[in-house]
Amino acid sequence: MVDTVALQTHFGFGQFRPGQEAVIGQLLAGVNTLAIFPTGGGKSLCYQYPAVIREDGALTVVISPLIALMRDQVDALLERGLAAARLDSSCSPQERARVLQAVEARELALLYVSPEGLADEELMKLLRQVEVELVAVDEAHCVSEWGHSFRPAYLRLPKLVSRLNPAAILALTATATTQVAREVRKVFRIQKSKEVRTPFHRANLHYRIHPVSGGQRNGRLFELLQQEDRTPAVVYATRREDVENIAAFLCEQGVQTRSYHAGMNAEGRAEVQDGFMNHEFPVICATIAFGMGVDMPDIRSVVHYHAPKSPEGWMQESGRAGRDGEVAYCELLACEDDRRVLENFVQANRPSARVIESVLRAIFSQGSIAVVSRYDLQTMHDLPEAVVDILLARLEIAGFLKLKGLSWKRGRVRPLVSSAEMLAAYLGKKRKAIEALLELKGNLDLLELAAQLGMKIEVLNDLLEDLEVGGDVGLKRTHRLQLYKTAKTPESIPELAEGLHAAFQEHTQRDLERVDAVFRTATTRSCITSALLKHFGEKLEKPCGTCSSCIGQKRLRKLPRSETEEVSLHELEKVQALVATRHAVLSSPQRLARFLCGINSPAMNRWRLYFKDDWGLLRRLPYEEVLVIAKAQVM
């Protein structure tokens, strides 16, 4: 029996939300559980409650990819006097050391850690020594390679979690289709009968579709935000430049709006997020970088200025509205032009077999230990971060690579004590390394320095961390490295590249199907809410009664679409002029096509090509058509 008195005492709630009590009861009985609750359904209480009511010093480990969520939840738990801490990439070595000491002393009830962080051998060894009662895996749908938000770091989680031998495992998600839920249950050994799913349908969310042409969007958005009880509001747009432009337009109209996107530094994003949550301004315009882990109950509107890229994204982003149970609006400014933009993103991010082969050769040419810089692979081969992560994950799954550890490539060292004091405690290679560090100034290439000293890069990084934790130096390290042991070498790299290329083709096709599902839903004449829920295997007994279709809102049978102009002779001359510059980044048809379609990529960002006058010259055309033009010019 779950104690509601403890619920009131520790969390201030008089009763549980639907599904919470069932999940908590199973976990307290030591049963592995999958909890599928909609966004705002109260997933975090399912692991926080069991953790805080235990009095035996047992530890709950929460695995989350969201630093903002970890920070906010740990801060909230500490305010309630509950013992919680986090380990993520923003923690300093001193903070990390303090947290590890607290774990060893069994002083914590909850420890939040990233999926990548759990792979750290030092942490894993320590966690195996203490009693881990529960492991909660948030955003568990990320374990599915065929889901909408696959994260390769999740592939290692089932094995890592099993090494901890917890009394129970809790997998949590808000966006699992029936297929993805099946995969999650399989990898975490959860019986189907132990899946607790609450309805995705939230009657207080009113889905509305507004067909618009490209030139009508701003006016329609302003009209929506002027209606009664429509703010606080989140406006989602696809590109960073769109976010800035929309925010500027709304400010010109007298609507206090701030922009938020991944191109801003961490401090800037935090300032905007906190300001919005504190009601300092009514509207935030953002890419989908905003919202994960943000718990703001009174958002009255979520407006998709551009179409979302999947039904899962549509539901997840819309679900950030109305968490207080009051009426909220989920608006879509629907324009057929967005289909081409979304499809172009999908097509352009698909790597060619030749590029995949080049990446494989860069990895396997290193011998028994491969030092991999994801940043270098991204920029040298112009591959999105997600593609590089999936490539590495697939090589791990196939048994070619085994992650050995993490390190850093570059660093800046600032002595805080005298050289004599620093050197006194070290002998041999470590002393020589410190002497070399003291002689060098500015940014150091740690890989090069390790080679000069005849020292392994991970040993040099451990030495630097010891110096920092000991207060001997100030240290700033950048450019993370992953160290892999080559477990086996491919018999044929070209054949392996072709197999991986085929897998990416399948990924691409699934993503295109998701885009199509969004536009089918946007043009349906039947209940929009029912159409969205069907994607997750849920069926409404009757139409929702509140969406555009149910209230009889008149809509065109086809979404507005801009006329597409043919490529002019002047534009072809511009393309030829670009090729004639022989810029290394534009030397392949794929890269040139991305540039012409205005699609950001690691190489484009590194060389800041988005500032060039011809950036996005042919973005009105499908990527595949632009690629044909690019091939004719480059080859």
Q: Taking strands numbered 1, 2, ... along the chain, how are they ordered across the largest sheet?
A: 3-4-2-5-6-1-7
The CATH architecture of the domain at 4-197: 3-Layer(aba) Sandwich
How many DSSP E strands?
17
Write down the overall geometry: globular
Strand content: 15-25%
Low-confidence sequence ranges: none
CATH top-level class of the domain at 4-197: Alpha Beta
Judged by helices, strands and strand pairing, the structural class is alpha/beta
Q: Largest beta sheet, briefly?
A: 7 strands, parallel
CATH superfamily of the domain at 4-197: P-loop containing nucleotide triphosphate hydrolases
Task: Describe what you observe in this structure.
The chain is of the alpha/beta class and 635 residues long. Among the domains are: 4-197, P-loop containing nucleotide triphosphate hydrolases (Rossmann fold); 205-341 and 518-534, P-loop containing nucleotide triphosphate hydrolases (Rossmann fold); 569-634, no CATH class. It is 45% helix and 15% strand. It contains 27 helices and 17 strands. It has a seven-stranded parallel beta sheet with strand order 3-4-2-5-6-1-7, with helices on both faces. Helix 8 (157-164) links the parallel strand 5 and strand 6 (168-173). Helix 14 (337-348) runs antiparallel to helix 22 (493-522), helix 15 packs across helix 22 (493-522) and helix 25 packs across helix 27 (623-634). The longest helix has 30 residues, at 493-522. The termini are far apart. The mean pLDDT is 92.
